[in-house]
Structures are given as C-alpha cells and as structure tokens.
Amino acid sequence: MTLSEFDLIGKYFRNAFKNGPDVRCGIGDDAAVVSVPQGMHLALSMDTLVAGVHFPSTTSPQDIGYKSLAVNLSDMAAMGAEPRWATLSLTMPENDPDWLAGFMEGFSILARQYSLSLIGGDLSRGPLSITIQIHGYLPEGTGMYRHGAKTDDLIYVSGTLGDAGLALGLLEGRCKTEEKYRGYLLNRLNRPAPAIELGMALRNKATSTIDISDGLLADLNHILVASNKGAVINIDDLPMSDAVKQQPEAADMALTSGDDYELCFTVPPGKQTLVENELKKYYQLSCIGEITGTPGMIWRRADGSLYHPKGKAYQHF
Questions:
Q1: Phi/psi of residue 151, each to 5°?
Q2: What local confidence, expressed as pLDDT, does residue 317 receive?
C-alpha cells in the first residue's frame, strides 16, 4: 500500500523528535509557534541542496540527510548562535519510504546531537532537493557578523581545508590519493562537523566570522568586502591534512575547495593570547594572516615571495 503525503509526514517527521517546552505548536498545523527566551535574539538561516549540484547522485540517503542539516547548522556556528528549531522542505522524484527512512536516519543523528526540534515543513514531488531553515538564538549583544573586521586583526581558520574538495575529486576521477585516506576524505565530504561549540566560544572574542562553504578564497573575501578591509595571507600556514598536502596543487585546493564548513574568523591582537591559550585546548585553530586597511588580498610564502592562486572560488551561477 502506497503511503500518502500525510501518512509519510506522520510516520517519518511528526513523531521523529520530542519537542521541548519552547515548541508551543509543531508539525501538524499551518505554522509552528515557538517561544524565544528573554534576553535572546533570534537567528535564522536557510540553505537548499540540489542533487547533482551539492551532492553526487550516488550519495546515500543517510549522508544526504546528515549533510543537509550540517550545512545549515554551520551557518548558526558562524553567528555564534545556539540552534533550536528547523523546518524541512523536501522534494522527491518518487514516493520512496525506504529512501525517506534513510534520509531521516542521517538527519536525526545530527538533530539529536544538538537537541534540535523539527517543527514543520513541506513534502512534494519533483527533482530531488532539500531546503532547510534553521532557527536559533544568542544573547543580545553577542552576535558575530562579517562586517566587524578591523585593521591588524589576526585571521584564523578552524580544522583543515580542502578535504571535501579532494573527496569530490576522487569521486569524479579528477584526483588520486592513497587508499588509507579515502574513508576520512569521504566522511569530510558527506558528514561535515558544524563548529557550533566553537562559534559560541567565540562570542565577545571574534570581530567577524564566516563559515567556509564556498572555499576560503571566496568566503574570506566576503568578510573583507563587508568590512571594507584587505588581508595578507601566509600560504604556508594554511592547515591541510596529509592527504591534501600530497596533491600537486595543494594550496589551491585548500583555498578554493568548497564544503569544508570550517570557521574563518578575525580577532584583535589583544585577544590572541586568549585564543591561543584557551580555545586551542579544544579546537584545531590556525592563524593564517592579518587584516589590512587596504582592500584586496595578498598571498605570500614564508620566504616573502608572492603566491597567485590558480583556481577560482565556487560560484553558484
């Protein structure tokens, strides 16, 4: 027996999560109603993932479910917000309960990790695409934005860069690597770890933040444009895994590959000791350069020579 749209919603969505007391009305009504704690600002973000554009058609439904939520949570991390609720709009080419069960399995793993409630959405037929709107909150006066970078601020990134891009290259046959790295790289592509805890730890420390979704080259430039500043980047300080370091154009891969979902942020020199002595105990952080007062980016090697990226940042259009 084929399940109807509302049967699918009831089986896979409505009963998938236990809502907290802040959800006054969730799935099953015309709109969700939630309560925001006093003294908090509401943060909202939305991303759409399309099959063949944001993930290969061979990606498992579990990985698709996980990643579709992870990329949205990464936006919350960049704002220093605590995620609380999500809505999900899912378009599928056919009524496939097994695929939907796998998708919700991956989605639920990450949602439960952050006590996230699924409070509404939509289900329809068409080419596979997933749109999630994420809602969270943060204390008033602690928001982090792209436009706050100041001259002489230090530029940091979390984690390693280029892993997801290398993984995609492996799947598409453009890149090669040692077999021992393959599982790690595919996990970095399919199951990125949103830096929620780091984002909240950066409140009142970072002057600007952004998550690295389209590649460092593009995303750091968003900070510079919004702040009307420039940057000098030390290429040899870019954090890369051993797998990426072995690639012929490792630096370019680290600069232009998308899907890293790490954080890029700036801190004033006076707070560098705080970052180095406190946050580095818990997070992999690398200082890669500094903000300048002259718009534009300069890339240099440790020997002082200039580096010119060969690749281009990801563009949606």
A1: -55, 135
A2: 46
- 278/195 Cα distance (integer angstroms): 16
Q: How far is CA 207 from the centre of its chain?
A: 19
Q: Is 148 helix (H, G, I), strand (E, B) or coil?
A: helix
Torsion (CA) 155, 160, 165, 171 in degrees, nearest 10: -170
| Token duo for residue 227 | 């702040």
Q: Match 């605590």 to its residue by tokens.
A: 82
> So what's the pLDDT on residue 57?
84
Domain hosting 125: range is 5-139
Tell whether pTM > 0.85.
yes
Domain tally, the chain: 2
One domain, residues 171 and 117: no
Name the amino acid, one letter, at 158.
Answer: S
Q: What is the DSSP letter of 290?
A: E
Place of tokens 């399919």: 190
Residues 51 and 167 in one domain: no
Residue in 136, 95, 106 with CA at minimum distance from that of residue 119: 136
pLDDT in tens, 107-162: 999 999 999 999 988 888 999 999 999 999 999 999 899 999 999 999 999 999 99
* pLDDT tens string 187-216: 999 999 999 999 999 999 999 999 999 999
pLDDT band at 7 (very low <50, low <70, confident <90, very high): low
Query: For residue 299, which amino acid is it?
Result: W
What gap in Å lies between CA 122 and CA 131, rounded to an integer? 9
Residue 314 has pLDDT above 70, yes or no: no
Supply the DSSP symbol for 4.
P
CATH classification of the domain holding 35: 3.30.1330.10
